[in-house]
């Protein structure tokens, strides 16, 4: 019983507070319209309108907190701060989906908040009216008596007390039954208007994953460069020193010495040189040193210059790329040019690279015989796997008779 009365009290307070806010919302829409139109009047709106939208966000957040507290749910606060600079503020205004939800809530609150608030006002005023009529009927003149339930005139205490008690009881029952449900319904509708939809949540999640992936790629690239540098400057240098000492030791042995010591030194020397060769291959496949020395443009120029098929480079504005994306693009171009030299019979190839909508587009075409088939070799499969590791895409166009075009898209947004 006490818990139910607490629900009635909290629901009634929630709805009655929402009634004046719904009335105020009727002024918000024209004010926002005036603020938007004022952008063309001396540019005043360029400064004022973003602040009006930010104020609307604060108001909507207050409503979200009220609704969440009534329903007993947890919400994540939304950012209501403005960026610095007029241009940044307008970019934030146009890009933020939350602004559209705030405006949708204001329009909805005018209708639903007003109706729910008036309903709560009726639930409260009905028993209060009966109580007032039952106690103050005698203040009215006899020819114009007060009326209570169903418009019955009150002219004596018995009628006043009896009908007043009935009206108070009916009003209390109506508030007991309807007020909590009406308040919860209005709170759920408000939260639904202000919370992102499933599509918006998916888009926001994709954005978060894109940002986190960019951070992972940067960290991965930095780690690759560190390992490559350590192997190149540390391990490889020590192997070179060991090989030199072993070579000197072999030279110091008598020429005719074919004993066990000479054989062991020879095997150790040759094994060290094999290890250095394998280490260089590992370093090149991890993060090619030429990328660190010359950058992606210089590395691609070196690939084109050394290609068995004459290759032409067409590079757009690439900007800063994650190291993992640079390495993947380098290896994809290298593998594609190698495949063209081995299988296509091409006399010319073109490598185009550009950056568009947060993706690095790598396109390699040749004038060979075409007919590239992934099932007949590992070249295209390797390219596809390398791109897939970064959530990239690969399109292959290679009709019989040529030409062959391989287009790879690698995400590189930061």
UniProtKB/TrEMBL annotation:
Superkingdom of the organism of origin = Bacteria
Q: Which organism is it from?
A: Nonomuraea dietziae
What name is this protein filed under? histidine kinase
| Catalyzed reactions per annotation | ATP + protein L-histidine = ADP + protein N-phospho-L-histidine
- Organism taxonomic ancestry: Bacteria, Bacillati, Actinomycetota, Actinomycetes, Streptosporangiales
UniProt enzyme class: transferase
Provide the Histidine kinase/HSP90-like ATPase domain boundaries.
Answer: 324-414
Q: Which residues cross the membrane?
A: 12-34, 40-60, 110-140, 160-179
Annotated EC: 2.7.13.3
Q: Which InterPro entries match?
A: HATPase_C_sf, HATPase_dom, Put_sensor_dom, Sensor_HK_TwoCompSys, Sig_transdc_His_kin_sub3_dim/P
Quote the cellular component terms of the Gene Ontology held in the record. membrane
Q: Which UniProt keywords apply?
A: ATP-binding, Kinase, Membrane, Nucleotide-binding, Phosphoprotein, Transferase, Transmembrane, Transmembrane helix, Two-component regulatory system
A molecular function GO annotation: phosphorelay sensor kinase activity
Q: Name one Pfam family in it.
A: HATPase_c
- Keyword Secreted among record annotations: no
